Amino acid sequence: MLQEALLHQGEICREFLSQFKYCNSNLVNIHFILLDPGIKCADQDWGPSDRAAEQSYFLEEEFHYLDVTQIRKLAIFDMFHCALACLRNNLCLSLNMATSHGTDGKLWCELLSSDKKRNAENYHKNTSSHHFFIVRSPCSSSPCQNGGTCIPNFSSNTIDCLCKESFVGEFCEKAVKSCKDIYEANKSNMSKLVSLHLGSQPATVLCHMGDFGCGHGGWTPVMKINGNKRTFHYDSGYWSNKTEYNTAGGETGFDSQETKLPTYWGTSFSKICLGMKIGGQIRFIVINMKASSLYSLIADGKYRTTSLGRDSWKTLIGSEASLQSDCNKEGFNVLCNKSHHSKARIGIASNNQDDCLSCDSRIGFGTGGQFDDSNTCGNEASCYSPDNGAKHIKARGYILVH
Questions:
Q1: N or C: which end of the chain has fewer CB within 10 A?
Q2: What residue stretches are annotated with the EGF-like domain (predicted)?
Q3: Does residue 191 have a pLDDT over 50?
């Protein structure tokens, strides 16, 4: 039937009817795309109003008639022809259409330059016609930004925007800068690759969604450290600069690939998730701290304290963890009085004396100092009275923010 409706004097209009349906029994969607504007149907005048048809709907009220001056009266095959004729006329705001076909198999259709709101006194029930008036889609103004798809809600004249992966907000107006943005928009616990807008070039990272050990939310990866390598040693320039390292490692999970991502200086947060993998087991702790970036806490080398306590830091290692009993200096840029002793960019350093002059044990990320300066992530405890014996445990470290 639809194909026949597109036939006119032996020619086929090169149009594609993408939607033609009744919604809630009285909403008719006439939504077409002109594939080749250079080809016209006979006796049809394509004009600017055709473009408006891409976002035009008709609301039907059965057995009603609006008695006003007609723009034009047509004999048509079906409602589609009548609605299309109205949409092509800039003056047409509504139409009356016969309820049944005549002896020639056609319906009469009246194009009207008014609607029931403007002429309520001339609007009444009858048995021979249905009335249709144009409902302009709330999507007509293209409110969804950054390539978002507009979904109209005609009952409330509102819209919903279906955003592309890297944008959120009511109108997709906000570029995603953290995995938290994605989680709060979708409330999904499924981890996935997301492009974050942190500068001139988007950065693709694996967003860790849900509670994997640090609590529910969207967790943004920042760094991955191999304690056997010196890439992120305490003295490495990577802690004080804005230079990436192996960004492809940000697209994988809790594996052995070392990485430093633009999220180190480009993502704000209220929580830091720290994880250490020893053998096949990963243990996590969380630091509650707000900052504009991890770079802002570490790059200047200033000591910033935390208050997790030695027992919390030891949970990263498990039952093998060992620290000396005193000092217990924890936080960011942890450095005892003597720089060749234990130190950590994030972690805790302890001593066997009631001071922090010569710390000989540590647990942390970006570490260094005696007694094993090559251990850059994990647990070092000397023979000077650690609470669980001397330890030399190198771990794989994971830093994420929320």
A1: N
A2: 135-173
A3: yes
